[in-house]
Amino acid sequence: MDQQYLFGSFLEENLNRKELPEMLQRIKSMGETNSASMTFFKEGESSNPKDKKVVAFYDKPELNIRVYCVWMSEKLVVFGGGGPKPKWIRTWQQSKKLKKEAEMIMRISELIDVRMNSRELTISPDGFYFQGKLELLNK
Amino acid sequence: MKKEKKNSFETEDLISHLLNKLSPGEKELINFRMDLAAKIYAAMKAKGWNQNRFAEEMGKKNVSIISKWLSGTHNFESDTLFAIQNKLGITLVDTDKTSRSPKLKVDFHVSGITAADLDKHIANAGGLQPTSIGLEYETQENA
What we know:
The complex is a heterodimer of chains A (139) and B (143).
Chain A: H1 6-13, H2 19-32, E1 41-42, E2 54-57, E3 65-71, E4 77-84, H3 96-117, E5 121-123, E6 130-132
Chain B: H1 11-19, H2 24-47, H3 51-57, H4 64-69, H5 78-88, H6 115-124
């Protein structure tokens, strides 16, 4: 099946950026030792103030990259796309690329809500996985 | 969630490839920062404090500094770590005094021995360690 995940595309698009290895190691640390505490993410990235799940993974102060996520719990986070975020950019609305990726993750977050409400999508009993209709967007 | 494939890398290969760019020491430092943030957050929660309350307790007017501390990316100054561990009642930095070289036990006023005896005692004890305590002694030769 020729499909690719948003996060995979994000990695490919930013393959040579120095921020990525550090960012991945932090994700690994969350998975192996520390849970995905909400404090590791920047809250309030959705234009819909009611949707608290849309967050951004923090970048280091001296680095300039942003990746958007849907934070479900300390055990389950959906990593989406993102892109370079120079410090002069304050919000995703100021960058065409970040706007596109942020809007995509917002749409995914909405779809997760819809699918979970209709029980087409559920979370596994151990809390670590989605179960059910996982393919959210078709192109 | 389909997107056009751009090259032959699969996501997992790509992640391994990128992680291999970090040295073991760099990985350890990143993990250490994450662990610090997680430990501080756990202690905050145990006290029932939110970020606003913690900022207040730490004498910080701007709560955004707490978000930075808890982000897992912050490079703490030792004074800040000291203040945080005191406030939360946890240990973040363990200076572990037992791991240092043992100090030489010194009687402040030594008499009745030769300089050679004193040298021998010092050598047997592994040499003199720098200390803020001065050593005064008399030997038979200079008594």
